[in-house]
Structures are given as structure tokens and as C-alpha cells.
Write a structure and sequence with these properties.
CATH architecture of chain B: Up-down Bundle
Chains: A mainly alpha, B mainly alpha, C alpha+beta
Order of helices and strands of chain B: HHHHHHH
Oligomer: heterotrimer
Number of domains of chain B: 1
CATH class of chain A: Mainly Alpha
Distance between the termini of chain A: 46 Å
CATH topology of chain B: Four Helix Bundle (Hemerythrin (Met), subunit A)
Helix content of chain A: 55-70%
CATH topology of chain A: Cytochrome C Oxidase, Chain A
Shape of chain B: flat
Largest sheet of chain A: 2 strands, antiparallel
Largest sheet of chain B: none
Structural class of chain A: mainly alpha
Distance between the termini of chain B: 39 Å
CATH architecture of chain A: Up-down Bundle
Structural class of chain B: mainly alpha
Number of helices of chain B: 7
Strand content of chain A: under 5%
Number of helices of chain A: 15
Strand order of the largest sheet of chain A: 1-2
């Protein structure tokens, strides 16, 4: 095996010399540089499936771990919803447990589920396959990345079992409240949370290094950046954001850990509590908020950009049409990524920071709406004059568009500083971010799983269960979060354990009960989905090669499903972009990326 | 080094579906930079570390303005440590030059000296810690102290990470069991990393003595 | 067909819910009615986009559903169309932003005639402090807090003597009196929020934040803490009562100044010492 790959490398190198044209010819790689890394070939079961260095296995490991911890997050949300909907019937939750559930639910869903799933899961599985690489560039580091992530998850779980329980500081962990005794888990829970987050950042940086450099340097011949599927663009840009944004979380976590353990005063101001003045003092809680949101806002796009990319590919493949405005889509991803670093303080309009910041951050925030809106237009314009197969991935993509547009426009409310004043810290915010970075990306996750499941396992998921899953999830989630915005208008603040003695609540009791019931139904449907995933591995209908007739490289590996090394003896050579569907004048309905022009009769990409 | 001209605007304005562009693209070798993966990896790590240290510096400057700030009295030992680190960086450069000339024997000696100097630096930093603790200057005593402990610890951990790779390269040279081009690259990358950490330290140290 | 109809129904249902559901904001009771106007404007602009985009999507799903004899169009891009869409979107965004920023400018520019009131938050309750006849609030420090001095007032500051201390969760305001509230927290983050006034700002220990408003309706309004502050966050309520001139003066007359409180406390102390001696 390894000898064969070596031969291939020599060929690949000789190809370098012939490159020319648009870019200045590449100088031969100087002798000093190390030769191409050889692929690591696992021998035993352990190195093949457990301590695996194969990005595909690591991707699946990431996805399974993220799903497992995500289930914990889901169950926590049920407890919260029961308390909010039926506070008198389900009185087993005290305020401490409620706040701990809120906190852990938020942190788990944002970081340990969505970030890990999109970048660790889809990123690992798809990047090497889609750019035509045999594996990630540093497979060993990639393996360590997963194990550090797993350790971070275990530390997080451990915090459920320490005295005082997990932290109940809210997922934003604002000091000084997070480490003062008025908050649950302020002694051990918060420290374990901070340690777990720091580990997550370290593990992610190892993985992120791989994703970025694989995309930049390990593409196959002919795969220019602008020939990459949008999925890769989305994950690639999101990873760069993560590499630059996670350090802020890391820094904030370390300083708060010291505040908590050593009694330093990075974030601890002069405080009078429990009848005495604390020894700490002079620190700035707002500094923490700046650091947190300097990470936190890009984090939104770390989740959203991969979703944007993946959904573009789903829509294109299942509508049998090239993605409309590919270049504009790439630009939008890059511009959104860049802008996401200058909008963070729109989470802090009511934080007491200098009010003049409001002008700047409201402007930058609303500017982001323009590239984002363009992406939406291009998705629906891709449907226009397409030939739409209403497969399950397509249904989820459509569900994504509705929920994303809905959640996106409420972002224009909250980004506009003056409108944020009455709405911030109310259920409007909760509804907004669940719609835009909870439901919308999850729609893409589900669509992507239905789309790529045949590639991973060689079998289809059960279609009937899939359709039930889609309709209940989409309609149910919409029914949860659309009305929830109006709770915010009434003025119901978020993070209230109960509020039925308040005049605002009388009209909202029925609504809260309705939301709770909808949430439970949607939650249980996800169990159905998990059942589908596990049972279809054995019982699913066998999938033929490339069932969706897609063009991108992952469907055109020598083995199906792809095996170790991804491609056979020779790496594929790319001759076109991945969106050659329904090309006029061609006899084929779709032309995969690795089909040379000579094999396509009269294949020309006509320009209109 | 990089000879590929990377103009991001030019790249992003390509129309991949046009036959003229396709003809050019088919010749592309799939690499964006004319750099090795390892070198790019080290650079990425340095970028991430730079962000971390910059955010600490920003926090430091913000915290400094509050009334309870008391500047640190830097012991003379810190100056000695700084000189040791400068020296280590200088010797590492020598090691790199020797290995470029295929003079691995000299390179090996230089590497050993670097290791000695770096460990001395870390020991020196620990001595400074001990000194502060012995005079009752704990992390919680004053925010300036807290930042001092934080900066030195983080910088020291970065150095320990570098020493791991230094150890791998040096062991290979000592046991005379090495791949020439790989070892050359390892020495070069470690040298770059040492220079980077020297610059980081000079900035942090400068910040702490200036305020 | 079925799919397109359901998507269209979701959109139509959302519109119906918006206009005919009973859940809507409480009537505004301060001068910040123009924040509501901004929200209404945003609703019309963004709501139109939402409805148009989603109905267009549903139409495409129906009109271009799969047929074996259909071939999709091949169109990599359309610069003119994309440029127009960008321009329209940018104009729409500007239309939302411009009035928003104008209102924000009002929100952060406090009128000169505003009466200053300090709101003091702690885990988990509210206290207030009004300036006396001098119209100025005395300076404070957390380190001065004691039983005799629950607000941490600076006894050296001449302004603090006649400050009126309202050690109660009820605050009375005079109708149509411009108020600048200065927000102070003793321990953790809080947020002084009255839904009917539409205004809100965090209270940060160590910093004094502020906002201003004019209570324009008489009534009894609930104060909610809107920044998570620990276990008792949800019970941290208070009341603002907006009175007419007469009721307000009556209430004010019953309040106690810092100086008086000090005197009372020292009398109590003397009594206590006297008792102990006996």
C-alpha cells in the first residue's frame, strides 16, 4: 500500500513543474523542506477505530461524542420547560437546579454540540474527501484533538457530581456573580466549567490547525480555492474565526479561574456582600464581557458559516442546479467572517459600557445583514428554475431557509441599539438566538446527516421516519420559538425561575404551556431520529454509489463508502467546479469534478 | 520560501465555470502557499499565541488604570533571565546555520547549549516566583503581581512546549539516527519559535517594567 | 404541492399570529414611545422581506418541482440582479438604522433639568436615594458601608447630608418629572427594568451607569431585575408608583434624610449604651 502512495507522490510532484498561467510558476519545493508525510497505516483494532488517525473515524467520533453530550443538553431543556410551563405541577426543580440546567444547556448546545459537530464532525469527515486529500495534514495531532475534546466533555460531566453541582451562572458566566456564593456551583462547578472550556480551546486549536492547513496546502491537483464546494469554504472560514476567537475565551477562562481559586481581582470589583466588603477589588466585570463576546460573537458564525456552506451544497445538488452566484456566496462568507470580529459589543448595549460605542456597533452589526441577506437571496434563486427533488435533505434545507430568515430578521431588531434596549434580556432574545443559531443550524445538521449518511455507512436512513422527523421538528420548533418572541414584547425577562405572580405573566401562562408541550414533542422526535440512525446502520436500504448524483469528490472515491486513504492508487485530478449540473449542450445531467473535458461530449460551460 | 503570489482579491474574483479559467485551474497543484505543512503549522500556532498574549496585554492595560494598581518591583534576577533567553535565541540561530551547512556535530552542541540555557531561564523564573512568595507578594496581593505570575507561567508553558520538540530533534541528533531534511526543518522551526518567544518575553517584560 | 402549501401556510400563520394574537407589549408609560415606533418600522421592513422571500421559496418549490423531462437552468451568476438586491438591502438596512441611531442619541443625552435619583441594587432587592434640596447626590464608596451608613455615603461630602434615603422597594415618582436614574450595585450585576418605561441598563458594582425617562402615566409599575444575578434573580422585584404632585409631596415628606438617620441611630446607640449600663 504505502509503496503505491509513494509512486503517486512522485507523479504529483512532477505535476508541479507544469503548473503555470494564472499564478507565477511554483518554485520546486526546496530540498530542505521535509518530504510529503506518509500516511499512517493502522494495524490493530485499537489504532484503527479507537486511537484512530483517520480523519473519517475521528469525524465520526467527534459527532458521536457531541451527540451524546447534546442529549444531556436536550434533557436539561425539558426540565426547564416543565418548570416554565407547569410550575405547580412539576415542582421538583428548585431555582438552583433550574439555573444550573439553563447554564449547562446553553454551554453544551453552543460549544460542545454545535461547534464540535460542525467543525470536529463534518469538518474532519468532509474536508479531506472534498478537497481530494488522503487525510488531514497532521493526523496524529488530529487524533489528540479528539481526545482532548473528549476529556473536556468528561470534565464538564464531572461538574455534575461535585459538591454544589455544576455552575448556575448562566452560559455567559458573568463575573462577579459566577464566583460568588449567591450562585449555584460557585465553588467547584464554575472551576470545572472553566477548566473544561480551556481544554476545549486547546483541543480545538489542534484540530483547527489541521482543517486550515489541509484546505490550504493539501488539495489535489486542479482543486483551486474557487473550485472548492461551499461546504469547505464555510468550514474553512469558520475554523479561521475559531482560531482567532477562542483565545479570547481561553484568556477570560484563565483569569476567572485565578479569581476563583487564588483570590486575584482581574474581574472582581469592590463588592459588599453578606454584610462585609470582600478583600478583592478594583477589577472590571465589563472587561470579562468584552473578552467573552469577542469570542462569543464570532462563535455565532463559527456555527453559522459551516451551516451556510453545507446548505448551499444541499440545495444545489437536490435542485439539480448550480448554486446561484457562487462567487458572491464565497465573498459573503469571507465578509461575514471578517465583520464578525467588529460587532461583539452589540451583546453589551445595556452592559453599562460607554454608550457612544452603541453607534459604532449598531452600524457594523446592521452592515452584516447585507451579505447575509445576499446569501438568502442566492439560496432561493438557486431554487428558481431548478428541478427540485423534495428529498429529505432538501426539506431540511427549505426548513433552514424559513427559520434562518425568521431568526435573521429579529437580529436586525436586536442589533439596532435602541430597539435592543427594551428587548434585551427578555424572551425575545431567547427566541431570536434559538431560531437563528439553534434551529436553523440544526436543520442543516439533520439535512447533512440524511445527505451524507449513505456515504458514511453505505445505507440510507429510513425515509418514512425521516419525513416524520422533518415535519415534527420543523413545525414544532417553529411553533416553539415564533410565539416566544411575543413573550419578550410583553416584557417577560429571561432567566426567571418563575414569574406567575407578575402582572405580565397572566396573559402568557397559556402560551408558556403551549411552548412546553411543543418542546417535549420536538424533543422526543429527536429520539426517533437517533433510533433511525442506529438501526439504519444494519437495516437501512443499501445505497448505490452516489445516490444523489452529486459532483463533489467525496462521492467519487475508489471504494464506496470511502476507506482508509480515501482515494485509490492515484489521487483524483479536478477539472471543474462542483456545480456542473444540467450544463447546456452536455449529454450528461451532471458532471463530477474529476471528469476530464475529453470525456464529456460537447461539454462546455456556456456563459449567459 | 513562498514564491506564490497570493492576491486574495484576484483569487476571489475567479470565475471557475469559465473555460478560460478552467484551463488555468487544471494546471493548479492544489497548494496555496509554497511552504511546507510544518512551517505553516508553526506559523498558525504563533498567530494563535500572539492573539492570546495580545489579549492579555490589553487586559493588563485596562486593569492598570484602576486606582488599586501597585507597580511591581522587578528583581535583578529578571534581567539575568532575559539575557539568558536572548543568548538562547542567539545560539539557536547558530544551530540552524550549522545545520544548514550540514555541520550536524556543531549543530548538536549548539542545541545542547540552547537546552541548558532554556532550562536555566525557566529555573530562573521559578526562583523569581520563590523570591516574590518569600517576601509575601502573592498573586492575590495586587493585580500587577497576578499579571506577573500569569505572564511568566504562560510564557514558561510555551517554552516547555517548544522544549518537547527541541528534545525530539536533539535526541535524534544524539543517537545519530536522523533524516537530514526532516531534522533541518525541525531545527529551523524550533529556532523560529524560540525567536518568537523571545520577542513575546521582551514585550511582556518591557510592559511590566515600563508600568 | 403539499410541501409548498405547508410552507406557505406557515408564513400566513405567522402573519395572522402577529396581527391577531393577544400577546403584545404593555402600553408605554414613559416618553420612550418612539422606541415602539422604531420597532413597528422594523416589523414592516423585515416582515415584508420575510414574507416575500419565504413565499417566493414556496412558489419555487411548487413551480419547479421535479419532473423527469425538466432540465434546470444553468446560470452561474447574474451580476446585475445581485447588485440590485444588494443595493435594495443596503437601503432597507439604512432605513432601519438611521432613525434607530437618532433615538439612541436622545436616549444617551440626558436633559439638564433631569432630577437625579440613585437606584441601589443588591442581592436581591432595591433601595433608592433622592437628592435633598441641593439637588445633588453625595458621593459614596463601598468601603464606607456599615450599619449606620447602609448606602456607603461619604460623611465628608456636604451634598450627602440632606440626601433622602428610601430603604424600601417602592419608589414614588412625580408625573412628567424628567428623571435621570443613576444605577449602582453593591455586589453583582443587576438591571433596572420597567417594561412600561421601555428603558433598561445594567448596574455594575464599582461603576455608576444611568439612563433617563419621563414617567407620563400615573400608575403602579413593577420593577424587574433584568440581568441574571444569582438564585434570587426572579424574586428581585420592586415597584415604581407614578403620582400626581400632591401624593408625591405627601410621600416625600414621610422620607428620612441621611442626617436625620444618623441622629436617630446615635440616639438609639446612646439608649442602648444607657440600657447596658443599667
Amino acid at each position: 500500500m504505502s509503496d503505491e502512495y509513494k509512486d503517486n507522490k512522485i507523479e504529483a510532484k512532477s505535476a508541479d513543474s507544469s503548473s503555470g498561467g494564472y499564478a507565477p510558476p511554483v518554485e520546486h519545493i526546496p530540498a530542505k523542506e521535509a518530504p510529503e508525510q506518509e500516511l499512517y497505516h493502522a494495524k490493530s483494532f485499537w489504532t484503527k477505530w479507537v486511537f484512530s488517525q483517520d480523519a473519517k473515524v475521528i469525524g465520526v467520533q467527534y459527532a458521536l461524542t457531541a451527540t451524546a453530550i447534546g442529549l444531556v443538553g436536550l434533557v436539561l431543556s425539558w426540565g426547564m420547560r416543565l418548570q416554565l410551563g407547569f410550575p405547580e405541577t412539576f415542582s421538583f426543580l428548585g431555582p438552583a437546579t433550574y439555573y444550573q440546567s439553563v447554564t449547562m444547556h446553553g454551554m453544551i448546545m453552543v460549544i460542545y454540540l454545535l461547534t464540535a459537530l460542525f467543525l470536529g464532525g463534518f469538518g474532519n469527515y468532509l474536508i479531506p474527501l472534498m478537497v481530494g486529500a488522503r487525510d488531514m495534514v497532521f493526523p496524529y495531532v488530529n487524533m489528540v484533538s479528539y481526545w482532548v475534546f473528549l476529556a473536556a466533555v468528561l470534565v464538564l460531566i464531572a461538574s455534575f457530581f461535585v459538591p454544589g453541582g455544576p455552575t448556575g451562572a448562566g452560559w455567559t458566566l458573568y463575573p462577579p456573580q459566577a464566583i460568588l456564593p449567591g450562585t449555584p456551583g460557585s465553588e467547584y462547578g464554575i472551576v470545572l466549567m472553566l477548566v473544561s472550556l480551556s481544554m476545549f480551546v486547546i483541543g480545538f486549536t489542534m484540530g483547527g490547525l489541521n482543517y486550515v492547513i489541509t484546505v490550504l496546502q493539501a488539495r489535489t491537483r486542479g482543486m483551486t480555492m474557487m473550485r472548492m464546494p461551499l461546504t469547505v469554504w464555510g468550514i474553512f472560514t469558520a475554523t479561521i474565526l475559531a482560531l482567532l476567537a477562542f483565545p479570547a475565551l481561553f484568556v477570560a477562562c484563565i483569569m476567572m479561574t485565578l479569581d476563583s481559586i487564588l483570590g486575584t481581582s482581574f474581574f472582581m470589583p469592590d463588592i459588599f456582600t453578606m454584610g462585609e466588603k470582600l478583600k478583592t477589588g478594583g477589577g472590571s466585570p465589563i472587561l470579562f464581557q468584552h473578552l467573552f463576546w469577542f469570542f462569543g460573537h464570532p462563535e455565532v458564525y463559527i456555527v453559522a458559516l459551516p451551516a451556510f456552506g453545507i446548505v448551499s451544497d444541499l440545495i444545489s445538488v437536490h435542485a439539480r442546479k448550480n448554486i446561484f452566484g457562487y462567487r458572491m456566496m464565497v465573498w459573503a462568507i469571507v465578509i461575514i467572517g471578517a465583520l464578525s470580529f467588529v460587532v461583539w459589543a452589540h451583546h453589551m448595549y445595556v452592559s453599562g459600557m460607554n454608550p457612544y460605542f452603541g453607534f459604532f456597533f449598531a452600524t457594523t452589526t446592521l452592515i452584516i445583514a447585507v451579505p447575509t441577506a445576499i446569501k438568502v437571496y442566492n439560496w432561493v434563486l438557486t431554487l428558481w428554475r431548478g428541478n427540485i427533488h423534495l428529498t429529505i435533505p432538501m426539506l431540511f434545507a427549505l426548513g433552514f431557509i424559513v427559520t434562518f430568515v425568521n431568526g435573521g430578521i429579529t437580529g436586525l431588531f436586536l442589533g439596532n441599539v435602541i430597539i435592543d434596549i427594551p428587548l434585551s434580556d427578555t424572551y425575545f432574545v431567547v427566541a431570536h438566538f434559538h431560531m437563528v443559531m439553534g434551529i436553523a443550524p440544526l436543520m442543516v445538521v439533520f439535512g447533512a446527516i440524511y445527505h451524507w449518511y449513505p456515504l458514511i455507512t453505505g445505507r440510507h436512513l429510513n425515509q418514512t421516519l425521516g419525513k416524520i422527523h422533518f415535519w415534527v421538528t420543523f413545525l414544532g420548533a417553529y411553533a416553539i420559538y415564533f410565539p416566544m418572541h411575543y413573550l419578550g414584547f410583553i416584557g417577560v425577562p429571561r432567566r426567571y425561575f418563575e414569574m406567575y405572580d407578575s402582572p405580565y405573566m397572566t396573559s402568557a401562562i397559556g402560551l408558556n404551556q403551549f411552548i412546553t408541550i411543543a418542546a417535549l414533542i420536538v424533543g422526543f422526535t429527536q429520539i426517533l431520529f437517533l433510533y433511525n440512525i442506529f438501526s439504519s446502520v444494519f437495516k437501512g436500504e443499501k445505497s448505490e454509489r452516489n445516490p444523489w448524483k452529486a459532483n463533489s469528490l467525496e462521492w467519487h472515491t475508489s471504494d464506496y463508502p470511502p476507506t482508509h486513504g480515501n482515494f485509490g492508487k492515484e489521487l483524483p485530478v479536478v477539472y471543474r467546479w462542483p456545480y456542473d449540473f444540467s450544463v447546456p449542450g452536455s449529454d450528461k445531467e451532471y458532471i463530477p469534478q474529476d471528469v476530464p473535458p475529453s470525456q464529456v461530449s460537447t461539454a462546455k460551460a456556456e456563459i449567459t | 520560501m513562498s514564491n506564490k503570489e497570493l492576491n486574495i482579491f484576484k483569487l476571489l474574483s475567479q470565475k471557475p465555470w469559465e473555460p478560460a479559467q478552467a484551463a488555468l485551474d487544471n494546471e493548479h497543484d492544489g497548494k496555496t502557499f509554497g511552504l511546507s505543512k510544518a512551517k505553516l503549522g508553526v506559523r498558525t500556532v504563533m498567530v494563535v499565541s500572539t492573539v492570546i498574549f495580545s489579549l492579555f496585554v490589553v487586559s493588563y492595560s485596562d486593569r492598570m488604570l484602576v486606582h488599586d494598581w501597585k507597580s511591581l518591583s522587578e528583581p535583578w534576577l529578571l534581567w539575568i533571565n532575559t539575557i539568558i533567553l536572548i543568548f538562547a535565541s542567539f545560539i539557536f540561530n547558530k544551530a540552524k546555520v550549522y545545520s544548514d551547512q550540514n555541520n550536524f556535530n556543531k549543530s548538536k552542541n549548539a542545541l545542547l547549549l540552547v537546552g541548558f540555557l532554556t532550562f536555566s531561564f525557566i529555573t530562573g523564573q521559578l526562583l523569581v516566583w520563590q523570591h516574590f512568595v518569600s517576601i509575601g507578594q502573592y498573586a492575590s496581593t495586587n493585580p500587577a503581581n497576578a499579571f506577573f505570575y500569569l505572564f511568566t507561567a504562560l510564557h514558561g508553558l510555551h517554552l516547555l512546549g517548544g522544549l518537547f520538540f527541541w528534545g525530539k530533534a536533539t535526541t535524534k541528533l544524539l543517537t545519530n539516527n536522523f533524516n537530514v531534511s526532516k531534522t533541518k526543518q525541525a531545527i529551523e522551526l524550533c529556532a523560529i519559535y524560540w525567536h518568537f518567544l523571545l520577542i513575546v518575553w521582551l514585550i511582556l517584560f518591557g510592559l511590566m517594567i515600563a508600568t | 404541492m403539499f410541501v409548498a402549501i405547508i410552507f406557505a401556510l406557515v408564513i400566513v400563520g405567522s402573519i395572522i399570529f402577529h396581527f391577531w394574537s393577544p400577546w403584545w407589549w404593555t402600553p408605554v408609560a414613559s416618553n420612550w414611545g418612539n422606541i415602539d415606533d422604531n420597532i413597528i418600522l422594523s416589523f414592516w421592513v423585515t416582515g415584508t422581506v420575510f414574507v416575500v422571500v419565504c413565499l417566493f421559496m414556496a412558489y419555487c418549490v411548487w413551480r419547479y418541482r421535479y419532473r423527469p423531462d425538466r432540465k434546470a437552468e444553468y446560470k452561474p451568476e447574474d451580476k446585475k440582479l445581485e447588485f440590485r438586491l444588494t443595493l435594495i438591502t443596503a437601503l432597507g438596512v439604512a432605513a432601519l438604522l438611521a432613525p434607530g441611531l437618532v433615538t439612541w442619541n436622545q436616549y444617551i443625552s440626558v436633559p439638564k433639568d433631569a432630577m437625579k435619583i440613585e437606584v441601589l441594587a443588591y442581592q436581591w432587592g432595591w433601595n433608592f436615594r433622592l437628592p435633598g434640596n441641593d439637588g445633588a447626590l453625595g458621593t459614596t464608596s463601598v468601603s464606607l458601608i456599615s450599619d449606620e451608613n447602609p448606602y456607603g455615603l461619604n460623611p465628608e461630602d456636604p451634598n450627602s447630608k440632606d440626601d433622602i434615603l428610601v430603604m424600601d422597594a417602592d419608589l414614588h415618582l412625580k408625573i412628567n418629572q424628567t428623571v435621570k436614574i443613576e444605577l449602582r450595585s453593591l455586589d453583582v450585576l443587576h438591571n433596572f427594568y420597567i417594561p412600561q418605561f421601555r428603558a433598561k441598563m445594567d448596574m455594575i458594582p464599582g461603576i455608576i451607569s444611568y439612563y433617563w425617562f419621563i414617567p407620563e402615566k400615573k400608575g403602579d409599575f413593577e420593577i424587574l431585575c433584568a440581568e441574571y444575578c444569582g438564585l434570587g434573580h426572579y424574586v428581585m422585584r420592586g415597584r415604581v408608583l407614578v403620582d400626581d404632585e400632591k401624593d408625591y409631596s405627601n410621600w416625600l415628606a414621610r422620607q428620612i434624610t441621611y442626617e436625620k438617620m444618623l441622629a436617630q441611630k446615635s440616639v438609639e446607640k446612646k439608649l442602648l449604651i444607657a440600657e447596658n449600663k443599667n
